Amino acid sequence: MTDPSGRAPRIAVVFYSATGNVAALAEALAEGAREAGAETRVRPVAERAPREAIEANRRWKAWVDDNPYDTLASLDDLEWADGLALGSPTRFGNSAEQLKAFLDTTGGLWAQGKLAGLVGTSFTSASTGHGGLEATILSMNNVLYHWGALVMPLGYAADPSLMSSGNPYGASWVSRKSAAPDDGALQAARVQGTRLAQVAAKLIT
């Protein structure tokens, strides 16, 4: 999908992932956006946790040591984008500090009004069913509100399969026993990416 001038919508997926689950959702979301004709950038934020904390968790250490991403998120990615997806694991009902630290650097862009034209959406993962999935998505959306961006929920109407996912706020995954996202969670993320691209295309001026 393109705007009347022929430019494809630009979607940035900015996320923090400790063990790879949020990264898998990020990639699925970007896949959905590309299927809708968008250009995409998938960018993790920097790891900021002390090495001793990482070393104490086998899966966290494995992800940090074998992280497949070469390029970290930057403010340039936000200026480039028409649509933005934010992703983070839950941290006591909030986004992870690593993502928050990146978002806290956006004050200059906010002051210039450069983020007000974005359409944004959020996604998450937790290890328990009541681990703060919706609260974490809402915490990320709070940043979008302050930017003046338009907030796009996943909703249920975009695809019949979403009725079984149980989360209209955004794609989410409950990783019991460290399980990777299943097909249903990945499909919800793809639908979210497709919808984000479609909405962003309509807002391009």
**Number of discrete helical segments:** 8
Class based on secondary structure composition and strand pairing: alpha/beta
Instruction: From the alpha carbons, calculate the radius of gyration and give it in angstroms.
Output: 16 Å
H/E element order: EHEHHHEHHEHEEH
Calculate the mean pLDDT score and round it. 94
Largest sheet: 6 strands, parallel
Please state the overall shape, judged from the principal axes of the Cα atoms: globular
**What is the number of domains?**
1
Task: Give the full name of the CATH homologous superfamily.
Answer: Flavodoxin domain
* Total beta-strand segments: 6
CATH topology, which one? Rossmann fold
Measure the end-to-end span: 14 Å
Q: Can you tell me the residue ranges where pLDDT is under 50 for at least 5 consecutive residues?
A: none
Protein name: NAD(P)H:quinone oxidoreductase
Pfam families: FMN_red
Domain Flavodoxin-like: 11-178
Family: Belongs to the WrbA family.
Plain-language structure description:
This protein has 205 residues and is α/β, with parallel strands linked by helices. It has one domain: 3-Layer(aba) Sandwich (Rossmann fold). Helix content is 40%, strand content 16%. The chain has 8 helices and 6 strands. Strands 1, 2, 3, 4, 5 and 6 form a 6-stranded parallel sheet that branches. Strand 1 (10-15), helix 1 and strand 2 (39-44) form a beta-alpha-beta unit. The longest helix is centred in the C-terminal third of the chain and has 21 residues, at 183-203.
